[in-house]
Design a protein that fits this description.
The structure is a single chain. By secondary structure, this protein is α/β, with parallel strands linked by helices. It has a single domain, classed as Undecaprenyl pyrophosphate synthetase, CATH 3.40.1180. 49% of the residues lie in helices and 19% in strands. The chain is built from 5 helices and 4 strands, in the order βααβααβαβ. α2 runs parallel beside α3. The relative contact order is 0.17. The model has no long low-confidence stretch (mean pLDDT 89).
């Protein structure tokens, strides 16, 4: 194993980039690229936890992303809401004793997205004694 005997970091951060380019190369709509990138990122976060990395930060949506077309922003908000809701039901969160923290200016989000983010945070805090953290930077600058 490549990492055998090596000390792993306790915190890793990811900046997803290239989802739209990836989709374009495949002749797909941009939102499909975002969906596929998010799906792969979920696997990466799971791999981090399996390796014992306690803190993972995902820079998911910067305030600059609001400059994209209204249609793309609306689709991204719909995807974000679905992903925050999925975190509430993710069986791995309590198993890993993980706390979800959504960091950013949630007041800039549509109410349903902000509510889903808040619910993801409170439900993770209620379900576990925290030993790991998933930070989701959303509407950050």
């Amino acid at each position: 194993m490549l990492l055998a005997g090596q000390q792993l970091p306790q915190h890793i951060a990811f900046i997803p980039d290239g989802n739209r380019r990836f989709a374009a190369q495949l002749g797909l709509k941009a939102i499909i690229g975002h969906y596929l990138g998010n799906k792969k990122l979920k696997h990466v976060v799971h791999w981090c936890r399996e390796l014992g990395i306690r803190y993972v930060t995902v820079y998911a949506f910067s305030t600059d992303n609001f400059k994209r077309s209204a249609e793309e922003v609306a689709r991204l908000m719909k995807l974000a809401r679905a992903q925050f809701e999925a975190l509430v039901n993710d069986e791995d969160i309590p198993m890993w004793r993980a706390e979800v923290r959504v960091i950013g200016d949630l007041s800039t989000l549509p109410p349903a997205v902000a509510a889903a983010a808040a619910h993801a945070m409170t439900s993770s805090q209620e379900r576990s004694q925290t030993i790991s953290v998933l930070n989701v930077s959303f509407s950050y600058t």
